[in-house]
Design goal:
By secondary structure, the protein is an alpha/beta fold. Helix content is about 45%, strand content about 15%. Strand 3, helix 4 and strand 4 form a beta-alpha-beta unit. The termini are far apart. Keywords: Aminoacyl-tRNA synthetase, ATP-binding, Cytoplasm, Ligase, Nucleotide-binding, Protein biosynthesis, RNA-binding. This is Tyrosine--tRNA ligase.
Amino acid sequence: MTTPVTPSKNVASAAGSPPLPLTDAVREALAITRRGVDELLIESEFAQKLTRSEQSGQPLRIKLGLDPTAPDLHLGHTVVLNKMRQLQNLGHQVIFLIGDFTSMIGDPSGRNITRPPLTKEQIELNAMTYFKQASLVLDPARTEIRYNSEWSDPLGARGMIELASRYTVARMMERDDFTKRYKSGTPISVHEFLYPLMQGYDSVALKADLELGGTDQKFNLLVGRELQKDYGQEQQCILTMPLLEGLDGVDKMSKSKNNYIGITEPANMMFGKLMSISDTMMWRYYELLSFRSIADLASLKSEVAAGLNPREAKVALAQEIVARFHSAQAATDALADFVNRSKGGVPDDVPELALAGAPLGIAVLLRQAGLCASASEAMRMVEQGGVKIDGAAVSDKALKVGAGTFVLQVGKRKFARVTLSA
């Protein structure tokens, strides 16, 4: 069991020392670190950390903490993991921290009501799949996995009270979501104040040099910085990543808005969705999701500006992402499938199902086949010319479909091979 951290009398900091000159390798590492980020605080401090790391050969300790809420990851979730992988490729020690203790508190970030805490059983169940999903991005052989219960449980009541004494209520109320809830009269539970403290204490326990998080985590990351100073440690730098827009190019990627690309979706579906983003949004996806070098991306942009069809660049992006979450062969097959569909062909992986009740109205048939969520949506798709049977467009909303086997198509990506009986 880990012993609770005790304050050091000597601050392990290079503060006050003359700044070290930056080498070309450090400048390149800084450029990679800054790529696609929202903020890097404090950049001059991080540059010095990189320089000392280069001189000593000691990798920086880079932390990402995720609470094991129900895992259902999409590409938006991988933006921070991608940055971790880039830093991992630079030779630094990345720490994937599973917040099994903090999950029992519940992160109040961005919440206007108290977040119900998860049970211990829920946390354990969710944690089992977390690292497996993260390993689709990170190199598992070079990733340190930790659970914050290692040092949080040993604190006990005395340790928690001592930790709470290190931060004031006034500082907590600087947090935007707490302020809004207080002004609106919405209850704030005392235990919610413990969340940023415990997340900050994670940085103390791990002696983190850099902590990553989404833009909504900035307050929590800053608390970690302050606690490290209070415990006599060199303060971590913080890096916040922006939220990735979804397929519509407007709202953040979200399952509830149906504008997402799931990392466990079939390769062909993933490829098709990536090809549907706009040419402008493509560069945003490249910046936040691609592992290609900054020089490669600059060259690709120049080629497109010089006349290369943006579609070719988008194909390269789609193949890179599909290969990462499936395989290189799956990416090749997905491209072939996409080309086949664009020519009006039927993909190879069409789901097959049997239905009864012929003759069925077209709206009922599409809903029962799972191609439309409702009869009204089915009618709308017919009106828009988005429904085909065996490649022939359907224009009659009153069409009754008789018994037989045929391929239904809705839009560009939804297919089903249906055997309809009486």
